[in-house]
């Protein structure tokens, strides 16, 4: 099935809502509306991302591409129209495990030359947050086989040590991404146009972290908010980062003898309380990001 994504401006989004109003179906959570027409399902998100799926998706999206205003130039580096990154050879970077109490922080970078974008699009790759873990595990090996990539993992124990030293989550992400990029660029020889980072801090803050830590980073990155919607390379990186997280969680489950819940929720609070109760609080160091409020909540539950 063909899947295409378009980032639109507010005016176009409103026009779309009017245009498809007679074809709307039940709106999925996080979406503004969903409409079904012959051969195409259109899902519009409040983030102004619109996903077209189905055999007529390409035809349908071209209607709207023509209406788009040129996206204003990014301050940091001149970039072409955001949706056109896939016409270039790009390295995409993204991470996973950030909001999950249990399990490591993972980062991935993937090199996608422009000739390969169609193949990846055919896999239905999009933002990993919109895909099930099951589907991610199905397609990740194909991405790994077809694209140069590098992955880094920050295990919980190490994460907690760095956190205790005052290195915050954003700094850890920056370090992990930089390590992954170094690995990729050292191991392989290829030419590329852009290194696109799914932006978690602005460019100056990103490079300042390395100055603070006295490390010289890979430079020349292009920082794009919600980049997985604008670049197939970033979307592929988000899939590999999530895949690595899911696999790491499987390993932790065999170590603990029970599946640990993902995310952060009441279930996670209770699970953490169970670990503390059975094995002591220090045991969390190897399974969890202990600075999360979850730890306090779990301790409260045991009072
Ligand atoms: Mg991200």
Helix content: 40-55%
* Distance between the ends: 53 Å
Please write the string of helix (H) and strand (E) elements.
Answer: EHEEEEHEEHHEHHEHEHHHH
Strand arrangement in the largest pleated sheet: 1-5-4-3-2
| Beta-strand segment tally | 10
Q: Approximately how much beta-strand content do the residues carry?
A: 15-25%
Uncertain regions spanning at least 5 consecutive residues = 69-82
CATH class call of the largest domain = Alpha Beta
> Globular, elongated, flat, extended or rod-shaped: what is the shape?
globular
- Quick one: biggest sheet? 5 strands, antiparallel
Distinct small molecules bound, one entry per kind? magnesium ion
What is the CATH architecture descriptor of the largest domain? 2-Layer Sandwich
CATH fold name of the largest domain, please?
Nucleotidyltransferase, domain 5
Number of helices: 11
Q: Please tell me how large the radius of gyration is.
A: 21 Å
**CATH superfamily heading of the largest domain:** Ribonuclease H-like superfamily/Ribonuclease H
Give the helix/strand layout.
Elements: E1 3-7, H1 10-19, E2 24-25, E3 31-37, E4 40-45, E5 49-53, H2 57-65, E6 90-96, E7 105-112, H3 117-122, H4 133-146, E8 149-154, H5 156-164, H6 169-187, E9 194-198, H7 203-213, E10 221-224, H8 232-256, H9 266-279, H10 284-287, H11 293-301
Parallel strand pairs: 6-9, 9-10
Antiparallel strand pairs: 1-5, 2-3, 3-4, 4-5, 6-7, 7-8
Helix pairs in contact: 4-8, 9-11
């Amino acid at each position: 099935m063909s899947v295409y994504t378009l980032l639109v401006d507010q005016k176009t989004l409103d026009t779309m809502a009017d245009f498809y109003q007679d074809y709307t179906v039940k709106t999925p959570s996080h979406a503004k509306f969903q409409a079904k027409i012959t051969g195409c399902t259109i899902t519009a998100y409040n983030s102004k991302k619109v996903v077209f799926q189905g055999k007529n998706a390409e035809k349908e999206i071209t209607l709207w591409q023509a209406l788009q205003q040129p996206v204003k130039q990014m301050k940091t580096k001149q970039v072409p129209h955001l949706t056109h990154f896939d016409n270039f050879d790009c390295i995409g970077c993204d991470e996973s495990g950030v909001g999950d109490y249990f399990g490591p922080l993972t980062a991935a970078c993937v090199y996608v030359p422009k000739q390969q974008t169609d193949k990846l699009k055919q896999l239905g790759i999009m933002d990993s947050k919109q895909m099930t873990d099951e589907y991610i595990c199905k397609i990740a090996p194909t991405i790994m086989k077809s694209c140069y990539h590098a992955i880094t993992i920050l295990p919980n124990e190490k994460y907690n040590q760095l956190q205790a030293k005052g290195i915050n989550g954003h700094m850890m992400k920056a370090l992990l991404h930089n390590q992954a990029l170094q690995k990729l660029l050292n191991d392989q020889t290829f030419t590329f146009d852009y290194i696109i980072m799914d932006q978690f801090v602005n460019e100056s803050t990103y490079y300042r972290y390395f100055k603070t830590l006295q490390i010289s980073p890979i430079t020349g990155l292009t920082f794009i908010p919600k980049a997985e919607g604008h670049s197939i390379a970033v979307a592929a990186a988000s899939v590999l980062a999530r895949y690595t997280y899911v696999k790491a969680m499987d390993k932790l489950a065999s170590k603990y003898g029970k599946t640990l819940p993902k995310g952060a929720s009441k279930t996670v609070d209770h699970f953490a309380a169970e670990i503390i109760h059975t094995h002591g609080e220090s045991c969390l160091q190897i399974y969890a990001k202990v600075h999360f409020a979850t730890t306090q909540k779990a301790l409260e539950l045991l009072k």
